[in-house]
Amino acid sequence: MALKKVAVIVAGSWGTALARVLVDNGHIVKLWTRNAEQAAQINQERRNEKFLPGALLPEGITATTDMAYAVSDAEAVLFVAPSSAMRDVAQQASGSLPKDALVIHATKGFESDTLKRMSTVLAEELGRPEQQIVVLSGPSHAEEVINRHPTTIVVASKEISFAEAAQDLFMNDAYFRVYTNSDVIGVETAGAIKNIIALGAGLSDGLGFGDNAKAALITRGLAEISRLGVAMGANPLTFAGLAGVGDLIVTCTSQHSRNWRAGSMLAQGLPLSDVLERMGMVVEGVRTTKAAHVLANKHHVEMPITDQLFAVLFENTSPEQAVGALMGRVRTHENEQQAVFHNKSINPDQVNPGL
Protein backbone atom coordinates (compact mmCIF):
# COMPACT_ATOMS: atom_id res chain seq x y z
CA MET A 1 0.00 0.00 0.00
CA ALA A 2 1.38 3.40 -1.00
CA LEU A 3 1.59 5.79 1.94
CA LYS A 4 -0.41 9.00 1.66
CA LYS A 5 -0.46 12.51 3.05
CA VAL A 6 -3.89 12.90 4.63
CA ALA A 7 -5.65 15.94 6.08
CA VAL A 8 -8.36 15.32 8.69
CA ILE A 9 -10.87 18.15 9.22
CA VAL A 10 -11.81 18.54 12.22
CA ALA A 11 -10.29 17.36 15.54
CA GLY A 12 -13.43 16.08 17.27
CA SER A 13 -13.69 12.58 18.73
CA TRP A 14 -14.36 10.78 15.44
CA GLY A 15 -11.85 12.79 13.43
CA THR A 16 -9.16 12.13 16.04
CA ALA A 17 -9.95 8.40 16.20
CA LEU A 18 -9.82 8.08 12.41
CA ALA A 19 -6.53 10.00 12.41
CA ARG A 20 -5.17 7.26 14.68
CA VAL A 21 -6.27 4.59 12.16
CA LEU A 22 -4.52 6.46 9.36
CA VAL A 23 -1.30 6.83 11.36
CA ASP A 24 -1.40 3.16 12.35
CA ASN A 25 -1.58 2.42 8.61
CA GLY A 26 1.60 4.43 8.08
CA HIS A 27 0.08 7.56 6.55
CA ILE A 28 1.22 11.13 7.30
CA VAL A 29 -1.65 12.93 9.02
CA LYS A 30 -2.38 16.60 9.63
CA LEU A 31 -5.36 17.18 11.93
CA TRP A 32 -7.05 20.59 11.59
CA THR A 33 -8.84 22.43 14.37
CA ARG A 34 -10.01 26.01 14.91
CA ASN A 35 -8.81 25.85 18.53
CA ALA A 36 -5.16 26.76 19.09
CA GLU A 37 -5.17 25.36 22.64
CA GLN A 38 -6.52 22.06 21.38
CA ALA A 39 -3.83 21.92 18.67
CA ALA A 40 -1.13 22.61 21.26
CA GLN A 41 -2.46 19.89 23.57
CA ILE A 42 -2.45 17.34 20.75
CA ASN A 43 1.07 18.26 19.59
CA GLN A 44 2.72 18.68 22.99
CA GLU A 45 0.85 16.30 25.28
CA ARG A 46 -0.51 13.79 22.71
CA ARG A 47 -4.00 14.20 24.19
CA ASN A 48 -7.41 15.51 23.07
CA GLU A 49 -9.03 15.59 26.50
CA LYS A 50 -12.31 17.31 25.63
CA PHE A 51 -13.27 14.71 23.05
CA LEU A 52 -11.32 11.57 23.99
CA PRO A 53 -10.34 11.87 27.65
CA GLY A 54 -7.55 9.58 28.76
CA ALA A 55 -6.52 8.49 25.26
CA LEU A 56 -2.86 8.77 24.27
CA LEU A 57 -2.44 9.85 20.65
CA PRO A 58 0.37 8.59 18.40
CA GLU A 59 3.29 10.81 17.46
CA GLY A 60 2.37 10.71 13.77
CA ILE A 61 -0.58 13.11 14.18
CA THR A 62 0.28 16.78 13.66
CA ALA A 63 -2.43 19.23 14.71
CA THR A 64 -2.72 22.66 13.09
CA THR A 65 -5.04 25.66 12.92
CA ASP A 66 -3.77 26.57 9.43
CA MET A 67 -6.19 25.15 6.85
CA ALA A 68 -3.89 25.83 3.88
CA TYR A 69 -1.02 24.03 5.63
CA ALA A 70 -3.30 21.09 6.42
CA VAL A 71 -4.66 20.51 2.92
CA SER A 72 -2.30 22.07 0.36
CA ASP A 73 -0.20 18.90 -0.12
CA ALA A 74 -2.88 16.38 0.85
CA GLU A 75 -3.42 13.34 -1.34
CA ALA A 76 -6.62 12.64 0.59
CA VAL A 77 -8.77 14.79 2.85
CA LEU A 78 -11.24 13.46 5.40
CA PHE A 79 -13.99 15.87 6.47
CA VAL A 80 -15.47 15.07 9.88
CA ALA A 81 -17.03 18.46 10.63
CA PRO A 82 -20.50 18.67 12.21
CA SER A 83 -23.21 18.91 9.56
CA SER A 84 -23.89 22.52 10.55
CA ALA A 85 -20.25 23.46 9.87
CA MET A 86 -19.52 21.32 6.81
CA ARG A 87 -20.18 23.98 4.20
CA ASP A 88 -18.05 26.53 6.06
CA VAL A 89 -15.00 24.28 6.46
CA ALA A 90 -15.30 23.06 2.89
CA GLN A 91 -15.24 26.68 1.71
CA GLN A 92 -12.10 27.26 3.78
CA ALA A 93 -10.40 24.20 2.32
CA SER A 94 -11.47 24.68 -1.29
CA GLY A 95 -8.84 27.25 -2.26
CA SER A 96 -5.88 25.13 -1.14
CA LEU A 97 -7.05 21.56 -1.71
CA PRO A 98 -5.31 19.81 -4.65
CA LYS A 99 -7.79 19.02 -7.43
CA ASP A 100 -6.79 15.35 -7.54
CA ALA A 101 -7.05 14.76 -3.77
CA LEU A 102 -9.41 11.99 -2.67
CA VAL A 103 -12.32 13.53 -0.74
CA ILE A 104 -14.01 11.51 2.03
CA HIS A 105 -16.46 12.50 4.72
CA ALA A 106 -17.57 10.76 7.91
CA THR A 107 -20.36 13.09 9.07
CA LYS A 108 -23.82 11.72 9.84
CA GLY A 109 -26.42 14.40 9.22
CA PHE A 110 -28.17 16.70 6.76
CA GLU A 111 -27.63 20.42 6.17
CA SER A 112 -30.44 21.97 8.18
CA ASP A 113 -31.62 24.74 5.87
CA THR A 114 -31.18 23.00 2.49
CA LEU A 115 -31.78 19.37 3.64
CA LYS A 116 -28.83 18.35 1.47
CA ARG A 117 -26.65 15.34 2.17
CA MET A 118 -23.02 16.00 3.09
CA SER A 119 -21.65 14.63 -0.19
CA THR A 120 -23.77 17.18 -2.06
CA VAL A 121 -22.52 20.01 0.15
CA LEU A 122 -18.90 18.99 -0.40
CA ALA A 123 -19.35 18.62 -4.15
CA GLU A 124 -20.83 22.12 -4.36
CA GLU A 125 -18.14 23.79 -2.29
CA LEU A 126 -15.13 21.89 -3.65
CA GLY A 127 -16.23 22.09 -7.28
CA ARG A 128 -15.98 18.41 -8.08
CA PRO A 129 -18.48 15.73 -9.19
CA GLU A 130 -20.59 14.31 -6.40
CA GLN A 131 -20.03 10.78 -7.69
CA GLN A 132 -16.36 11.14 -6.70
CA ILE A 133 -17.09 11.97 -3.05
CA VAL A 134 -16.74 9.05 -0.62
CA VAL A 135 -18.77 8.62 2.56
CA LEU A 136 -17.43 6.61 5.50
CA SER A 137 -20.06 5.22 7.89
CA GLY A 138 -21.09 2.21 9.95
CA PRO A 139 -21.16 0.97 13.55
CA SER A 140 -18.22 2.73 15.14
CA HIS A 141 -17.67 4.52 18.44
CA ALA A 142 -14.61 6.78 18.51
CA GLU A 143 -13.96 5.70 22.11
CA GLU A 144 -13.41 2.14 20.90
CA VAL A 145 -11.52 2.89 17.68
CA ILE A 146 -9.00 5.07 19.55
CA ASN A 147 -8.24 1.99 21.68
CA ARG A 148 -7.92 -0.24 18.60
CA HIS A 149 -10.99 -2.34 19.33
CA PRO A 150 -12.15 -4.41 16.31
CA THR A 151 -14.40 -2.28 14.12
CA THR A 152 -16.01 -2.80 10.71
CA ILE A 153 -17.28 0.08 8.57
CA VAL A 154 -18.33 0.84 4.99
CA VAL A 155 -17.10 3.38 2.45
CA ALA A 156 -19.44 4.36 -0.38
CA SER A 157 -19.08 6.24 -3.63
CA LYS A 158 -21.08 6.28 -6.85
CA GLU A 159 -17.79 5.55 -8.65
CA ILE A 160 -16.58 2.40 -6.94
CA SER A 161 -12.90 3.09 -7.69
CA PHE A 162 -13.04 6.03 -5.28
CA ALA A 163 -14.57 3.84 -2.58
CA GLU A 164 -11.82 1.29 -3.16
CA ALA A 165 -9.17 4.02 -2.78
CA ALA A 166 -10.70 4.96 0.59
CA GLN A 167 -10.84 1.27 1.53
CA ASP A 168 -7.10 0.99 0.85
CA LEU A 169 -6.47 4.09 2.96
CA PHE A 170 -8.26 2.91 6.10
CA MET A 171 -8.30 -0.88 6.14
CA ASN A 172 -5.84 -2.83 8.26
CA ASP A 173 -5.59 -6.42 9.45
CA ALA A 174 -5.37 -5.53 13.13
CA TYR A 175 -8.66 -3.88 14.05
CA PHE A 176 -10.23 -1.84 11.22
CA ARG A 177 -12.06 -3.68 8.44
CA VAL A 178 -13.63 -1.74 5.55
CA TYR A 179 -16.26 -2.80 3.00
CA THR A 180 -17.17 -0.87 -0.16
CA ASN A 181 -20.63 0.16 -1.34
CA SER A 182 -21.99 2.24 -4.23
CA ASP A 183 -25.21 3.40 -2.54
CA VAL A 184 -24.21 6.84 -1.27
CA ILE A 185 -27.81 7.96 -0.67
CA GLY A 186 -28.57 4.89 1.43
CA VAL A 187 -25.38 5.05 3.47
CA GLU A 188 -25.75 8.78 4.19
CA THR A 189 -29.46 8.56 4.97
CA ALA A 190 -29.01 5.59 7.30
CA GLY A 191 -26.12 7.24 9.12
CA ALA A 192 -28.07 10.45 9.67
CA ILE A 193 -31.48 9.13 10.69
CA LYS A 194 -30.24 6.42 13.05
CA ASN A 195 -29.31 9.29 15.39
CA ILE A 196 -33.02 10.12 15.72
CA ILE A 197 -33.82 6.56 16.76
CA ALA A 198 -30.91 6.67 19.23
CA LEU A 199 -32.48 9.72 20.85
CA GLY A 200 -35.64 7.64 21.19
CA ALA A 201 -33.69 4.74 22.69
CA GLY A 202 -32.20 7.08 25.27
CA LEU A 203 -35.67 8.39 26.09
CA SER A 204 -36.94 4.83 26.47
CA ASP A 205 -34.12 3.86 28.81
CA GLY A 206 -34.43 7.13 30.72
CA LEU A 207 -38.11 6.42 31.32
CA GLY A 208 -37.18 3.06 32.79
CA PHE A 209 -38.58 0.90 30.01
CA GLY A 210 -36.95 -2.43 29.28
CA ASP A 211 -35.51 -4.44 26.43
CA ASN A 212 -38.93 -5.09 24.88
CA ALA A 213 -39.46 -1.41 24.23
CA LYS A 214 -35.96 -0.87 22.89
CA ALA A 215 -36.18 -3.86 20.54
CA ALA A 216 -39.45 -2.54 19.14
CA LEU A 217 -38.00 0.96 18.78
CA ILE A 218 -34.93 -0.25 16.90
CA THR A 219 -36.95 -2.51 14.59
CA ARG A 220 -39.64 0.04 13.80
CA GLY A 221 -36.97 2.73 13.57
CA LEU A 222 -35.22 0.73 10.87
CA ALA A 223 -38.51 0.61 8.97
CA GLU A 224 -38.73 4.42 9.10
CA ILE A 225 -35.14 4.86 7.97
CA SER A 226 -35.70 2.45 5.09
CA ARG A 227 -38.94 4.05 3.92
CA LEU A 228 -37.43 7.52 3.72
CA GLY A 229 -34.19 6.25 2.20
CA VAL A 230 -35.97 4.35 -0.57
CA ALA A 231 -38.17 7.38 -1.29
CA MET A 232 -34.95 9.41 -1.70
CA GLY A 233 -33.49 6.87 -4.14
CA ALA A 234 -31.56 4.44 -1.92
CA ASN A 235 -31.13 0.71 -2.39
CA PRO A 236 -33.26 -1.00 0.31
CA LEU A 237 -30.61 -3.67 0.88
CA THR A 238 -28.25 -1.01 2.26
CA PHE A 239 -30.40 -0.72 5.38
CA ALA A 240 -29.85 -4.39 6.21
CA GLY A 241 -26.06 -3.85 6.26
CA LEU A 242 -23.39 -2.12 8.32
CA ALA A 243 -24.52 1.42 7.53
CA GLY A 244 -28.13 0.54 8.36
CA VAL A 245 -28.99 -1.99 11.03
CA GLY A 246 -25.36 -2.24 12.19
CA ASP A 247 -24.99 1.44 12.97
CA LEU A 248 -28.51 1.60 14.38
CA ILE A 249 -27.82 -1.16 16.91
CA VAL A 250 -24.54 0.29 18.17
CA THR A 251 -25.96 3.80 18.51
CA CYS A 252 -29.13 2.72 20.30
CA THR A 253 -27.51 0.36 22.79
CA SER A 254 -24.36 2.11 24.00
CA GLN A 255 -23.75 4.89 26.49
CA HIS A 256 -20.90 6.03 24.25
CA SER A 257 -23.64 7.45 21.99
CA ARG A 258 -24.16 11.19 22.41
CA ASN A 259 -27.67 10.85 21.04
CA TRP A 260 -28.54 8.08 23.51
CA ARG A 261 -27.20 10.18 26.40
CA ALA A 262 -29.13 13.24 25.23
CA GLY A 263 -32.35 11.23 25.01
CA SER A 264 -31.81 9.80 28.46
CA MET A 265 -31.39 13.29 29.92
CA LEU A 266 -34.53 14.52 28.17
CA ALA A 267 -36.46 11.67 29.78
CA GLN A 268 -35.35 12.97 33.17
CA GLY A 269 -37.15 16.24 32.47
CA LEU A 270 -34.22 18.43 31.48
CA PRO A 271 -34.99 21.11 28.84
CA LEU A 272 -33.31 20.61 25.48
CA SER A 273 -31.12 23.71 25.94
CA ASP A 274 -29.76 22.32 29.23
CA VAL A 275 -29.14 18.91 27.68
CA LEU A 276 -27.11 20.39 24.84
CA GLU A 277 -25.14 22.57 27.24
CA ARG A 278 -24.30 19.61 29.45
CA MET A 279 -23.26 17.48 26.48
CA GLY A 280 -20.67 20.04 25.40
CA MET A 281 -20.49 18.38 21.97
CA VAL A 282 -22.71 18.31 18.88
CA VAL A 283 -25.75 16.04 19.14
CA GLU A 284 -26.51 15.46 15.47
CA GLY A 285 -29.83 13.72 16.16
CA VAL A 286 -31.45 16.97 17.28
CA ARG A 287 -30.84 18.79 14.00
CA THR A 288 -31.53 15.63 12.04
CA THR A 289 -34.93 15.20 13.67
CA LYS A 290 -35.98 18.58 12.33
CA ALA A 291 -34.55 17.83 8.86
CA ALA A 292 -36.11 14.35 8.67
CA HIS A 293 -39.49 15.75 9.74
CA VAL A 294 -39.40 18.08 6.74
CA LEU A 295 -38.01 15.42 4.37
CA ALA A 296 -40.75 12.98 5.37
CA ASN A 297 -43.41 15.52 4.45
CA LYS A 298 -41.60 16.36 1.21
CA HIS A 299 -41.44 12.71 0.13
CA HIS A 300 -44.88 11.79 1.54
CA VAL A 301 -43.41 9.19 3.90
CA GLU A 302 -44.92 8.58 7.33
CA MET A 303 -42.35 8.46 10.15
CA PRO A 304 -44.26 8.19 13.44
CA ILE A 305 -41.22 7.79 15.72
CA THR A 306 -39.52 10.79 14.13
CA ASP A 307 -42.74 12.80 14.39
CA GLN A 308 -43.06 12.11 18.11
CA LEU A 309 -39.43 12.93 18.79
CA PHE A 310 -39.92 16.18 16.87
CA ALA A 311 -42.85 16.92 19.16
CA VAL A 312 -40.75 16.22 22.27
CA LEU A 313 -37.80 18.31 21.08
CA PHE A 314 -39.61 21.27 19.57
CA GLU A 315 -43.29 21.26 20.60
CA ASN A 316 -43.14 20.72 24.37
CA THR A 317 -44.67 17.23 24.21
CA SER A 318 -43.64 15.10 27.19
CA PRO A 319 -41.84 11.79 26.57
CA GLU A 320 -44.77 9.99 28.22
CA GLN A 321 -47.24 11.63 25.83
CA ALA A 322 -45.07 10.65 22.87
CA VAL A 323 -45.02 7.00 23.98
CA GLY A 324 -48.79 7.03 24.34
CA ALA A 325 -49.21 8.49 20.86
CA LEU A 326 -47.01 5.76 19.37
CA MET A 327 -48.66 2.90 21.20
CA GLY A 328 -52.14 4.14 20.28
CA ARG A 329 -51.57 4.26 16.53
CA VAL A 330 -53.99 2.47 14.23
CA ARG A 331 -53.41 -1.29 13.94
CA THR A 332 -51.62 -2.57 10.83
CA HIS A 333 -49.85 -5.61 9.35
CA GLU A 334 -46.10 -5.99 9.72
CA ASN A 335 -45.62 -7.60 6.29
CA GLU A 336 -46.60 -4.30 4.71
CA GLN A 337 -43.47 -2.83 6.31
CA GLN A 338 -41.21 -5.56 4.99
CA ALA A 339 -42.20 -4.80 1.42
CA VAL A 340 -39.71 -1.96 1.31
CA PHE A 341 -36.84 -4.46 1.59
CA HIS A 342 -38.13 -6.68 -1.19
CA ASN A 343 -39.35 -4.17 -3.74
CA LYS A 344 -37.06 -1.26 -4.49
CA SER A 345 -39.68 0.39 -6.67
CA ILE A 346 -42.46 0.33 -4.07
CA ASN A 347 -44.50 3.48 -3.78
CA PRO A 348 -44.02 4.69 -0.17
CA ASP A 349 -47.54 6.20 -0.27
CA GLN A 350 -48.87 2.63 -0.45
CA VAL A 351 -47.14 1.52 2.74
CA ASN A 352 -49.06 1.83 6.01
CA PRO A 353 -46.24 2.56 8.47
CA GLY A 354 -47.85 1.58 11.77
CA LEU A 355 -45.52 2.01 14.74
From TrEMBL:
Binding-site residues, substrate: K108, R258, N259
Binding site for NADPH: S13, W14, R34, K108, A142, R258, V282, E284
Domain annotation Glycerol-3-phosphate dehydrogenase NAD-dependent N-terminal: ranges: 5-162
Keyword Transferase: no
Catalytic reaction equation(s): sn-glycerol 3-phosphate + NADP(+) = dihydroxyacetone phosphate + NADPH + H(+); sn-glycerol 3-phosphate + NAD(+) = dihydroxyacetone phosphate + NADH + H(+)
UniProt GO molecular function: glycerol-3-phosphate dehydrogenase (NAD+) activity; glycerol-3-phosphate dehydrogenase (NADP+) activity; NAD binding
SUPFAM superfamilies: 6-phosphogluconate dehydrogenase C-terminal domain-like, NAD(P)-binding Rossmann-fold domains
Residues the record lists as binding sn-glycerol 3-phosphate: K108, G138, S140, K194, D247, S257, R258, N259
Enzyme Commission no: 1.1.1.94
Residues engaged in binding NAD(+): A142, R258
Pathway(s) it belongs to: Membrane lipid metabolism; glycerophospholipid metabolism
The Glycerol-3-phosphate dehydrogenase NAD-dependent C-terminal domain, residue ranges: 183-323
InterPro entries referenced in this protein's UniProt entry, alphabetically: 6-PGluconate_DH-like_C_sf, 6PGD_dom2, G3P_DH_NAD-dep, G3P_DH_NAD-dep_C, G3P_DH_NAD-dep_N, NAD(P)-bd_dom_sf
Primary residence: cytoplasm
Active site residues of this protein: K194 (proton acceptor)
Keywords on record: Cytoplasm, Lipid biosynthesis, Lipid metabolism, NAD, NADP, Nucleotide-binding, Oxidoreductase, Phospholipid biosynthesis, Phospholipid metabolism
Places the protein is found: Cytoplasm
This protein's GO CC annotations: cytosol
Family listed: Belongs to the NAD-dependent glycerol-3-phosphate dehydrogenase family.
UniProt xrefs under NCBIfam families: PRK00094.1-2, PRK00094.1-3, PRK00094.1-4
Protein's job: Catalyzes the reduction of the glycolytic intermediate dihydroxyacetone phosphate (DHAP) to sn-glycerol 3-phosphate (G3P), the key precursor for phospholipid synthesis.
Protein name from the UniProt record: Glycerol-3-phosphate dehydrogenase [NAD(P)+]
Native species: Cohnella abietis
